[in-house]
Amino acid sequence: MGILKTAILQSNYIPWKGYFDLINSVDEFILYDEMQYTKNDWRNRNKIKTPNGVQWLTIPVKQDSLEQKINETKVFDPKWNIKHWRTLQQNYSKAPYFKFYKELFENLYLTNSTSYLSQINLLFITAICNELGIKTKITSSEQYSYGDGKTERLVNLVKATGGKEYVSGPAAKDYLNESLFEEAGIKVTWMNYAGYQEYHQLFPPFEHGVSILDLLFNEGPNASLFMKSFVELGKIHE
Fold first, then answer.
1. pLDDT of 92-150, one tens digit each?
2. Residue range 189-218: mean pLDDT, rounded
3. Using alpha carbons only, what angle is made at residue 55 by residues 109 and 192, rounded to the nearest 5 degrees?
């Protein structure tokens, strides 16, 4: 086996394609939901295309304190799932592959029985990975002991997986202390989200930064052809 690559990120709701490219680029993807829940972020919402432009699809959640963790965050409206599925139907029913995925996502939405945001996000992330053919091991930071310190925690999590390379999204460049990884013998690699190819998309103009559901509903089993990790790593599957 080659050098074990690890990525660590908070769970997002029906994330964009770049999130899944990050998962597909590593051997183990750790959901870091013991972090503080942040409002107006990607944890409980994402964007979809509509005839009136890009629209947010948001899970209403309760935030009882600023210290509240993502994995402690619960849904506020028990009918959120029905509303979201209805919105997706209204805007994607004419997409070429909507019917192809209708049963899968209808079941994911309408049989949802958990009120915890982390569990909802994990449910969708694992189902979408399965559809894309992503084989990466997905774990939770709760399964490991990793101590304190912003960068130190990440280093300890990578070490706990046996990882030798940490793959990070570009936003972390503002705070990540790369020298701590170097001292631990761990290489840091940065994801590059530039240069995505456009695909068939309803309601022009084209928008890259929307939920991956947009790509699936429009391109179906060909979705991986428009994802950088599959093309660059030669992971295109039949």
1. 999 999 999 999 999 999 999 999 999 999 999 999 999 999 999 999 999 998 888 88
2. 96
3. 90
Question: What interhelical angle do 212-219 and 17-24 show, nearest 10?
Answer: 90
In our burial notation (b when 16+ CB lie closer than 10 A, e otherwise), range 210-226 reads: bbbbbbbbbbbeebbeb
Which of 49, 55, 57 has the alpha carbon at shortest distance from 12?
A: 57
User: How far is 161 from 227, CA to CA, in rounded Å?
Assistant: 26
What is d(CA 27, CA 16) in angstroms, rounded to the nearest whole number?
20
Q: Are 158 and 6 spatial neighbours (Cβ–Cβ below 8 Å)?
A: yes
Task: Kindly give, in sequence order, each residue whose CB lies less than 8 Å from that of residue 171, ignoring residues fewer than 6 positions away.
Answer: none
